[in-house]
From TrEMBL:
This is Peptidase M16. It comes from Flavobacterium crassostreae. Residues 190-367 form the Peptidase M16 C-terminal domain. Signal peptide: none annotated. It comes from the Bacteria. GO terms for biological process: proteolysis. The keyword Protease applies.
């Protein structure tokens, strides 16, 4: 009884925190089609300016992969009005920080400055869009940077190619099948015109959303946004291609030898629906139920109680068109990956057969409430969430509605979604092994 009261009190407290944290914002568009989202927060004298472009590795040609990620680097090289090598100096000398990242679906750039430097940030991002200098010296320089990144993050990093290998086998038609960093031979043989054409095709105002978040005056910000972005010509927006994958009806088996590891890993991966779907949200709950923390089902069963694994996990890798649900484990030295897979499957079968307990269900609700609060606890998090919900989900208002969706998911839905997607004939089994080891039978 005491535990139930404490759980109820925690739930009510978190609910109050979430309700108090409703994100206010204003959204409008410029005449050139660029979307603008403004979020004011005067808690600290900082302001974030970001632009998210609706271009990722899935928008590349099969023989020209890696371009989206390449541009994440290339567009820091300089502009017509920012000399080569000066971008980061300007940011740091004005008390700011900046960064960028790329996914299969979008590319994101941002700066964080003291609030009195908003105009500078807006000018710099407009320069990146309107006046980028794309020349051979910049391409050659960044080609070397990309190769170093590939070596450190993928080729020479233990288990660094797991996601790439999983994608390669789960997708036959969709561009998700290649890695975000792309193939180095494609970048080596690409011409200057190839890079310039990619920029003209995707780096246009009507393929982007601009977010300003933090301490600023709206009237002033709108004037600067119009001044620096409003005059940029509208581009010809490329229609997104639709790539359809046939359902997986029998187990795909594959192996990959990694020279950087000594302990084999077993991976069970399922192709799942797009991030916009309710089922994708349910799968996120299931992954938390299985492996979020030391009290999660897989950890308690396989690592803590039976002591047959060093590490175990479940990840719902949700994306714009399809998702990947990935389960993985590293066995203890006296146990095999086959044993781990059997234990994982038994836990999945349990979810497919029985409703999770009320206690576990309440725990999941509390976990996702805290995740919502944490993801919106900084201007950086809020800005990226606003851009993401607008660009990939089609509705920035989801920043305030997403938690309600998760809280409406029932235990019955959790069981039904596990039955629908997490079946042994609908998955890839990947033996990710050291070079000297043979794949399991």
């Amino acid at each position: 009884m005491k535990n139930s009261i404490m759980a109820l009190s925690t739930s009510l407290m978190l609910g109050g925190m979430a309700n108090a944290q409703k994100i206010s914002f204003e959204q409008y568009h410029l005449n050139n089609g660029m979307q603008v989202i403004l979020h004011q927060d005067t808690a600290a004298p900082v302001v974030l300016t970001s632009v998210m472009y609706h271009v990722g590795s899935k928008d590349e040609a099969p023989d020209k992969t890696g371009f989206a990620h390449f541009f994440e680097h290339l567009l820091f090289e300089g502009t017509a009005n920012i000399k080569r090598g000066e971008w980061f100096k300007i940011v740091s000398s004005n008390g700011g920080t900046n960064n960028a990242n790329t996914s299969d679906d979008r590319t994101y750039y941002y700066e964080v400055f003291p609030s009195n430097n908003l105009e500078l940030a807006l000018w710099m991002e407009s320069e990146r869009l309107l006046h980028p200098v794309i020349n051979q010296i910049g391409i050659t320089t960044q080609n070397g940077v990309i190769k170093e990144e590939k070596a450190s993050r993928y080729d020479n990093r233990p288990y660094g190619k797991i996601i790439s290998v999983v994608k390669e086998h789960l997708f036959q038609n969709h561009p998700y099948k290649w890695s975000t960093i792309g193939a180095m031979e494609h970048l080596d043989t690409a011409t200057l015109e190839d890079f310039q054409d990619f920029n003209k095709k995707f780096y246009i105002p009507n393929n982007a959303v601009l977010v300003v978040a933090g301490d600023f005056e709206k009237k002033e910000a709108k004037q600067w946004i119009e001044k620096y972005f409003g005059t940029i010509p509208k581009g010809v927006k490329t229609k997104k291609q639709i790539h359809v994958e046939q359902p997986i009806s029998q187990t795909i088996r594959a192996s990959y030898q990694d020279p950087n590891i000594q302990i084999p890993m077993v991976v069970a991966a399922y192709r799942t629906p797009a991030m916009k779907t309710r089922d994708s949200r349910v799968l996120s709950l299931i992954s938390s139920y299985l492996s979020d923390g030391k009290s999660s089902k897989l950890y308690k069963r396989i690592v803590d109680t039976k002591k047959i694994a060093l590490q175990i996990g479940a990840v719902n890798f949700s994306q714009e068109d399809y998702g990947m649900y990935i389960l993985y484990g590293l066995p203890m030295s006296t146990h095999s990956t086959a044993e781990l897979l059997l234990e994982i499957d038994q836990e999945i079968t349990q979810i497919q057969t029985d409703l999770i307990s009320e206690r576990d269900y309440l725990k999941l609700q509390n976990q996702f409430e805290m995740q919502y609060i944490n993801s919106n606890s900084t201007v950086e998090g809020i800005a990226e969430n606003l851009a993401k919900y607008h660009l990939l989900y089609g509705d920035a208002k989801l920043i305030n509605q997403e938690l309600k969706t998760y809280k409406s998911i029932t235990r019955e839905e959790i069981r039904a979604v596990a039955k629908k997607y997490l079946n042994t004939n609908q998955r890839l089994i990947l033996d990710y092994i050291p070079v000297t080891e043979n794949p399991s039978e």
